[in-house]
Amino acid sequence: MFLLSRLNLSYSQEALYELRRAQIRDEFFTGLARIEARQIALERQVTTLATIGETFYRLSLEKQDTPEVEHELRRQLEKTLQTLLERDAGISGTGLWYQPGIMAPTDECYAPYLVKTEAGDVTIQSQSADFRRTGWFDLTLGKAFGRNSVSHMRVLWSPVYYDEATGRAPLTLAKPMTRAGGELIGVATIDWDSEQIVDLVSVTEVTQNSFSFLNDRNNRNLSSRSQYDDPVQEQKIIDAVLAAQLSKIAVNTPPGPTDRRPPEKRLRTRKLDVGGRLYELYYAKTPAGMIYGTGVPHDEIDRALAPMRDINHRILLITGSALLVLSLYLLYRIIQLLRELQASYTDVLTGLPNRMRLLRDLQDRRDACLILLNLNRFKEINSLFGNECGNAVLLAMRKQLRAFIRTHAYPFERSPELYRLSSDEFALLSYGAAESRVATFVRTLTEFLGAQKVVWQQQTLNLNASAGIAFQSESPDHDVAAPDRLLSRATIALSQAREQRHRLVFYDQSQEIEKGYEKNILWARRLKQAIETDALRPYFQPLHDNRTGTFTKYECLMRMEDPEHGAVTASHFIEVASKVRLNRQITRVMVEKAFAAFATEPFEFSINLSYVDISDPETLALILVHLRSSNVGERVIFEILESDGIANYDEVLQFIETVKCFGCRIAIDDFGTGYSNFSHLLKLNVDFIKIDGSLIRNLAQDHKAFLVTKGIVQFAQSMDIETVAEFVHSEAVQERVVALGIDFSQGEYFGMPAAELVGRDRQRG
Predict the structure, then answer these.
(1) 161-199: string of b/e by CB count within 10 Å (b at 16+)?
(2) Which residues are bridge partners to 617 per DSSP?
(3) Per the CB 3.0–4.6 Å rule, which of 348, 477, 514, 553 could disulfide with 604?
(4) How far is 583 from 647, CA to CA, in rounded Å?
């Protein structure tokens, strides 16, 4: 805990160090920006001065070359230079140095150079000097002067030099003046007084004993500002800065005297030892090629952290105590979490590992054999005698399974591990056994369990169980089956054992049951996508009126438009839709589109409804909305699926009475497939019965089908109910249908379902 507190204190100090350094950098950037702004302003001024010099040159060419005009131009030019000097206190001299013969007679020079005296007066220092003989020439233009064109030159800076004429130590900015074609006609110059540099640098102040400096590119100190009163110490600082040769260390800068990168990119830092005292040095190159820097004593940076360190030391005991308490609490919580984690892998009732633990144990295991055991009729026992009895049976099951594993030989490499997966399902997991030996082991186990008796309040119960077995085999691509897949396969085998009433069943991969599951998932996904993309369409199959020989009705059947398979019939997806609870949504889509399709058509149309649809409030509300808003109620027929179990006749009767108020009629679909057909007709007020296709399809050659159909027709006629024959596929079948007196025919013989209303005008006898 003490170490944690110290680490926290160290981190806090480092964070504050960085914060303090950021403040120092901000102060440094402020000073650097001030110097750079001044230097950039000087560059602009000398550029402007060069432009003025070039302009006066062009004026001299345009005007008559007379002594009066030449004198006036020179007077105006010198007045301009004087104005520039008077306006800017930081400039100590300005000059326009023309080549011989430029604005002067041949072999003569005109070079007005004005300087500012210590009293602030402006005087002309020179008017005809050759700039090649000046102190600044070799420091700026000297190396490049021999070139044919100097128009490419930027503003050039000289290092500090001593000017014998003025007795000062200035820096000179030089900008070539050219005429058309880039030929040099002269040089414009501005002198920056070193005293102004000192004043500019002296503004910067970071800490009590910090210092600032500005060195030229020849590593000569131009100014230094220190808070020390001791000139000896100040000189030591200057000597240490000069000895560091910072102008050579400031690498990674573009070629040329000017560096235009952002200050953050130019900033360099280093340690500087001055007489045993350590300084942190921040420096960067300015646009003029100078080195500006700030030095801050490291102990003064550290001193700013002393109050925080003292406070931390005072609260160290409190912090340690708090951390101790927190650590104890965290330890307690960790123990609790470990217990909860253990509980999440353990069945509460039996104390056995649970499903999650089984899946975890199956990770990266090969040659696993999983045996699922399910107690037969456990739900009946639980519901008949209560949960307490069920718990007693499960505990007895655990006890007997453990006893069997301990006392019987097993065909595995090691003893099987026992798990409880769900209310009445246990699992045995082991490795490395042949199928025949596993079968013998499981058969012996189920016989053993069946012989055990559990007595509950003088009631004798047995432990009969079914078993499903699956092996962890490699798939064709040699990937070991995932743990959940092995469990899924064992579950499939167990379900088959229970359905077939066998003691045990091995999972048979050749049955491809998993592919059936994958197919269901695929259809569920395609169906959901079809609903989202509005790919469900109503198709219409005509009903032939055997009395008039015309088509008067159409049945609306749902199809799913698929870009690969075309129109897919509902038989492919309706079962999946029911299991994933999308059937009601499909019915609502069908109701919407069927009413819309027949809104302007004169024909009667029928819509299939299941009992689930009738009992759905949303579907009923949608139907009533359309019946109220349209005038088609007398042309609507609702077909109730006879094969669909009706759990509540009151709901169905209420639906029939509600829609019949709008003139709708009711049909029983698939009549003849169930065991309660006639009871349906007696209970429900229906208008049509549609005789199932399994009877009509064989009507021409199956005499029994003919007799059954005849009985249905006679019964319907006695109750004044009209009949419809489904699946009429041939002329022979249609002749039998007519002979039996069936009112309507529907099937391939008259037309298959289509997206349009086909056969409107078709007549058949």
Answers:
(1) bebeebebebbbbbbbbbeeeeebbbbbbbbbbbebbee
(2) none
(3) 553
(4) 18
